[in-house]
């Protein structure tokens, strides 16, 4: 019934989460997504990158997991389904004590936050860190990870999400509608931008001499600018998260230690997956949006 490779697992999906990645592929936005995702029709007709579930069967060369193991991870596509195939390197054991819904909310968002802050931003204890888009899926994990590693965190969000960002652990929260961040007097060691819409120069003036501005999402034009400027300006960088099993394990350990926890905004039924994607596309979520595939 199912064909999967020797190093893959067949996973019975219990939950999957929604990312901007999903609606961008759905809309082919930006258009160059068609180059890898299919010019005339989708190469991957079933969306959903983040999964949590139970291993149903394994390929001959699989060494780490066995049928019955509860896992989570990011497998690229196909998670808005009852079963999906995933490679060993894209999975880790589900955090102890976490539900399938909570575990599904972790992979892409938390990997982006972890790698953006630590690998690109060189996060250290005692630094002043600004998180833009702090209430979103990536931002909610970024606030917690920065706090866990000892940073002083300023979260930027809309007025309706201020209380949510405070509950995530931010030391200060700024409503971008009422405060022009370009006029802030405070200077930061790291600005992690999950909602890049303003010019890069507005952020550079907020950096300390050795500070770093890292873009994780937002307008495509801003991301391309960061990619270009990063070639000759050490203060500017961008993050496109990659799935590393060691980072999934690191996140698992952070969850188990109480360092981070999933903030789930809404849970949708399998039948309402389209509405879940729409909710994320409209930037209404406070934290993550998760689809329950089965109980």
Automatic annotation (TrEMBL):
CDD domains: MDR1
InterPro entries, A to Z: ADH-like_N (IPR013154), Chloroplast_QOR (IPR052733), ER (IPR020843), GroES-like_sf (IPR011032), NAD(P)-bd_dom_sf (IPR036291)
Superkingdom of the organism of origin: Bacteria
Recorded GO MF terms: oxidoreductase activity
Domain Enoyl reductase (ER) as annotated: residue spans: 3-291
A Pfam short name: ADH_N
PANTHER family recorded: ZINC-TYPE ALCOHOL DEHYDROGENASE-LIKE PROTEIN C16A3.02C
Protein name: NAD(P)-dependent alcohol dehydrogenase
Organism, as annotated: Paenibacillus soyae
């Amino acid at each position: 019934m199912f064909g999967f490779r020797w190093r893959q697992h067949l996973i019975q999906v219990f939950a999957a989460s929604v990312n901007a990645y999903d609606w961008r592929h759905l809309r082919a936005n930006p258009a160059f997504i068609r180059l890898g995702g299919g010019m005339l029709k989708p190469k991957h007709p079933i969306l959903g990158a983040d999964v949590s579930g139970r291993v149903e069967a394994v390929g001959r060369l699989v060494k780490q997991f066995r049928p019955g193991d509860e896992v989570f991870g990011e497998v690229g596509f196909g998670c808005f389904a009852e079963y999906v195939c995933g490679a060993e390197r894209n999975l880790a054991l589900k955090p102890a004590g976490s539900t399938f819904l909570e575990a599904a909310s972790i992979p892409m968002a938390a990997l982006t936050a972890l790698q953006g802050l630590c690998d690109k931003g060189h996060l250290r204890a005692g630094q002043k860190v600004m998180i833009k888009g702090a209430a979103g899926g990536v931002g909610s994990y970024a606030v917690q990870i920065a706090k866990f590693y000892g940073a002083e965190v300023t979260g930027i969000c809309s007025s309706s999400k201020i209380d949510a960002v405070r509950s995530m652990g931010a030391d200060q929260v700024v409503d971008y509608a009422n405060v022009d961040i370009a006029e802030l007097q405070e200077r930061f060691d790291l600005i992690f931008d999950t909602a890049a819409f303003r010019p890069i120069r507005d952020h550079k003036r907020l950096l300390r001499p050795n500070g770093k501005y890292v873009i994780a999402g937002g307008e495509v034009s801003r991301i391309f600018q960061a990619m270009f400027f990063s070639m000759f300006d050490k203060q500017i960088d961008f993050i496109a998260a990659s799935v590393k099993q060691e980072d999934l394990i690191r996140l698992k350990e952070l969850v188990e230690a109480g360092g981070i926890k999933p903030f789930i905004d809404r849970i949708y039924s399998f039948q309402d997956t389209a509405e879940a994607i729409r909710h994320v596309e409209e930037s209404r979520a406070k934290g993550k949006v998760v689809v329950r595939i089965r109980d």
